[in-house]
Amino acid sequence: MVLNPVLGKLVSKRVVLASASPRRREILTNVGLRFEVVPSWFKETLEKSSFTAPYEYAVETAKQKALEVANRMHVKHMRTPDVVIGADTIVSVDEQILEKPVDKQDAYRMLSRLNGKEHSVFTGVAIIHCHSKDNQLEMEITDFYEETKVKFSELSEELLWEYIDSGEPMDKAGGYGIQALGGMLVEYVHGDFLNVVGFPLNHFCKKLAELYYPPSKHNIQHKKYDSIPSVDTFENLSDGESSNFTEHKAASKLDHSGMRSSGAAYTSGNTSAVRTGFTVPLENQNGVSQSASKLPSKILELMDGFRASKALFVASKLKIFDHLKDKGPAKAVDIANDVGTSVCGTERLLDACASLGLLEKTPQGYSNTDSANTYLTSDGKYSLHGYIIHSNDHLWPLFTNLEFAVKEGSRQNHRAFGKKADDLFKDYYHSQEVNQRFMAAMHSIAHLTARDVATAFDLSQFKSACDLGGCTGALAYELVQVYPNLKVTVFDLPEVIANTSYFQPSGQHTAPVTFVSGDFFKDNLPEADLYILSRVLHDWPDEKIHVLLSKVSAVCRPGCAILLAEMVLDDEKKNRSTALLQSLNMLVQTEGKERSGSEYQALLKQHGFKNVKIRITGNLLDVILCVKT
Ligand SMILES: Cc1cn([C@@H]2O[C@H](COP(=O)(O)OP(=O)(O)OP(=O)(O)O)[C@@H](O)[C@H]2O)c(=O)[nH]c1=O
């Protein structure tokens, strides 16, 4: 059974798992799928009696979970995913649906019902393919369910309570986890084990195969299509490669979110296969199966990562995306002439960008993809151009010294730029050009994340806020849009405040945002009900953070609050590679680091901020709020 060509279809897409279940995340991660986790806010409260069969309830709930995320990402985050996956697992016994227990007594009630009997576990799954057309979200929904029968042994009261006291039942449908201690309760399982754990992987892959590779006439006549179709049943897995393509050809794609896939397309006669890292049976012209060797695709992708980044950086520096904006397709020679580069070099860069999904290439020439128009042109509302240029000019030289940073445990500004900066931000502010570049970079990220930061919590009770280190005011302007009664002071160094006018939003009522210059380590902080520190604490070591938090705490009256916006690491520091790589980014250039929710909690607690709430937004920044009591 060959899974990867099927899952490979998702590699170049922005895939979102609309689930908070760590089991689902693990099942999909284990098979190499790359995706973002955006837990659904859909409340599982559909009226059970309105469904004729339990599986219908699970399927509908799964669908609603996925729809909520697809809509939220499109409308609120303005990031339309390509595919959203939602799932819902329920246990059904004696015509009753059991979900997660609300407390220990409820868990006891559920487990007693299952005791000594066979029950069914249903997982409903929804796969939503999304497209944004004229800003409207268009969706194609595919759903299915899987049933597994599970029988519990006869269990004593004592054992049931011991199990309940382990804490395991609480976040699990039916009140048990078959994959852990709960496995001891189970006499037999008929069907897909992973379906019980929370995600029917096999059925999911079959569904993808049906969606992406509908069986052709040839397949129906000659091939067995028993489970996930093996590659030799696919007529053309290489997405548009013609069937007379006879050479080995490497392919590598970037989707809108920057995810990348790589693989090799092989064709012989009318059979082709995308090979992405698992053993792929291939068929030669005589119909004899061969085995391609195993490729470590993930490692190969990582080895190539820097090349893809640099191609994006150079195309951005040359303003190729600006050049192609609002234009029909252009030929490489014309682009080269316009931007003043060599034709042969430009052609290779354009081809690389097209293969990465940044440009479209047709016989008429090259044009921007939608995401290039939105994010890569320098003047777009959600332009990442500033951050890309900062990445190329500032972060790249620093990262080339990562080895020293790891060996020495310290930042590498002296090696990268030949000078030792005593103060972190002196590097940025020594020249107007670098200052503006840095501000543009911070502005890009602040703008992209501002809506999610502003709405992660309801902040309507606050009348005034002070954004410490608020830079260009991107978050401040978003806040006053979302909360019309709020007045926001942006407090930042004089060198920053002097340059903010360039970033003022046009056509927006700017009165509720004021800019005050000062150094938050040295000067008095402006009065406010809410103090915001967005991407500030990660710049500093704990000692400095204590200085800053004690200053905020001193001016923060009861009822006032502190709001942090940072990439929050999971407590085990193993799951969020974007945030963990960002922590390396902090190592090469600062004395700071990214921290986990518990670490932020501990820092805040020492300054009287006790009731800490954390929201993982699914965007680049998460939000921590603590109201002082
Ligand atoms: C029977 C069984 C269930 N589960 C977990 O039960 C949760 C079901 O709840 P859900 O509502 O489908 O999902 P959730 O956890 O609330 O997440 P979400 O998708 O965000 O609603 C999921 O976690 C499953 O793994 C196990 O881990 N092992 C088992 O043997």
Automatic annotation (TrEMBL):
Name of the protein this chain belongs to: Acetylserotonin O-methyltransferase like
Record keyword Transferase present: yes
Cofactors that this protein relies on: a divalent metal cation
Oligomer and partners: Homodimer.
Alphabetized CDD domains for the sequence: AdoMet_MTases (cd02440), Maf (cd00555)
GO molecular function: nucleoside triphosphate diphosphatase activity; O-methyltransferase activity; protein dimerization activity
O-methyltransferase C-terminal domain location: 399-610
UniProt keyword annotations, A-Z: Hydrolase, Methyltransferase, S-adenosyl-L-methionine, Transferase
